Amino acid sequence: MRPSPRLLLVASLIALLSLGLVILPEAPAELVPAAWALLALAVVADALATPGGKRFVLDAPQTREMFVGETAELGFVLRPVADGGRLPGSAMARLAWPQELEGPAQFVLSPGPAGASAGITVRAAGRGDFTLGEIAVLRASRLKLVDVVAVYPCATRLVVVPNIRAVTSGEIDVQIATEAFGSRAALIRGEGSEFHQLRDFVAGMDSRTIDYKRSARHGTLVAREMRAEKNHNIVLALDNGHLMRETIAGLPKIDHMINAALALGWAGVQGGDLVGLYAFDARPRLYLPPGGGRRAFAQLRSRAAELRYRAIETNHTLAMTHLGQRLSRRCLVVVFSDFVDTTTAELLVENVAVLNRHHVVVFVSIRDPLLAGYQRRAAGDLGEVAAAVAAAGLWRERRLVLERLARLGVFVVDADPGGITARLVSTYLTIKARELI
């Protein structure tokens, strides 16, 4: 227990009264000890009449899985240990959140029929496995002369995983179905290199598709229908260096990249291809060989969630060389990385160009909305003018690097965080339809 603001106020008034009685000679001095004794008795009685912290228990949620970048509602209830016990009144709770979780530092537990309860909203700003540990609860005594502070264990475990909302919502499936049955259907099914089926030849079809041996056997003209080849290898190469820890749109770049990579992984699995994962920073950290099926996607998601945030510089030369040695057949390599300027991007461009000689490479980067914002903002002083000029220079250098990669034959996906997934999946479907792998 600790003194409450009310007790401190009453004690201050009694102290002023005591000082006045000492100064005035004709005042009855015996009132001073009587006032302090009365206050002491009130404090003792208040403390004895107030149930202690062990009379209550704090109910909290158990394990909860969250997507990074999203919010969740958590409910807490402070109730008596024994049934029929006295219900607690209003209380104040305090909680120390991990750095990757954003929530209220303190919240009010309002009294109710089952106890004092509160519902709070927490946002996941980073991946990880977090246990809240304990919550401090402050309750006022019956006379509000003392505050009862108790610490209750909190077994709430929040597991923050990569955001696959685009997969669970069916957005990727709809995009794949649109490509498969829309305007590209003829290209995918009619001009591929893999045999799909036989069908009756009708007027308007290309005569080169007629299978004369089977036509003679069936007594009618039949044509071979082809489709784009499947079972390609797709490797998702994630740069996990310090540049990827920069926060854009409320999330680190690496989390935006992982979300887009998993969406592409699901599209690849649904399209019949084999998807693998490669993560690197100063050195290669993880290599998951390409696999197919939903089981492979579950493993891909699990391994991606285990990637830790690192604050070391990326070695693109070592990473791309190691990856090139790992790949034994032509693959689609999707490199998720970033750069600051043309100087720091020189090694990146050279190594991606080497990898592009034997594989199909897609380079994915995220635009920084701040750069465009500085250029559109009206400058009010010389400092803002300098910031706009610097932002324009960085934007120009960025475009030079991306254009250089495009001239080398690399597919470039450069978009805002909200549009990177759709563009990446569309690029994958284009590459597959054109049978470039």
TrEMBL record:
All copies of the DUF58 domain together span 198-369
InterPro entries found in the cross-reference section? DUF58, vWFA_dom_sf
The highest taxon in the source lineage is Bacteria
Q: Which Pfam families match?
A: DUF58
- PANTHER family found in the cross-reference section: BLL2464 PROTEIN, SLR2013 PROTEIN
Task: Write the protein's name.
Answer: DUF58 domain-containing protein
Q: Which organism is it from?
A: Jiella sonneratiae
**Phylogenetic classification of the source organism:** Bacteria, Pseudomonadati, Pseudomonadota, Alphaproteobacteria, Hyphomicrobiales
